[in-house]
Amino acid sequence: MEKESISFVMLFCALILVKKDKATMEESVTVVPLFGGAKLLAGELASMTCE
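User: That's the sequence. What structure does it adopt?
Assistant: Structure tokens below.
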């Protein structure tokens, strides 16, 4: 699996943690190593929750 695919899976898992109230969105995206499109998506999601 390439880095970006792994990154999307890790982002998905981080979002599950947020949904289950185990972590905040900000905590999740700062802990998960992200690459490429997943990094951009995580940034967008984090900025949406901070507004």
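The CA atoms of residues 17 and 23 lie 6 Å apart.
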